[in-house]
Amino acid sequence: MSKGSDLQVDYELLETSAKQLRQIRTEFNGLEEWKQDIKSLLGDSRVQKAMGDFVDNWDDNRKRLVKEIEEVGKMVRATRDAFKDLDVDLAKATKGKKQRQRALAD
Questions:
Q1: Considering only 16-20, 78-82, 96-100, which range has the smallest mean pLDDT?
Q2: Is residue 42 part of a domain?
Q3: Which of 12, 18, 47, 101, by CA, is between 20 and 30 Å from 83?
């Protein structure tokens, strides 16, 4: 959007935010693998049980967080796209208005 506009949208920030949310989602999805890796390190069955309970709880919350991260990412991308579309539409309208004004002035 133009510098004289009351509303300024930082497209780069929105794009960076969307990318970072995708990276976070990927990291959270990749945490599934660590359960098996750590199980062999725990030894005692009581520790394994306690950690198993913790991991199951973490899995439930991780899945919820991944869904929420995906939703926020969709909103960020939709916001970016809506403002870009609006910016293009306003630029076209402004250009058309200027052309009409020039035609009337001639």
A1: 96-100
A2: yes
A3: 101
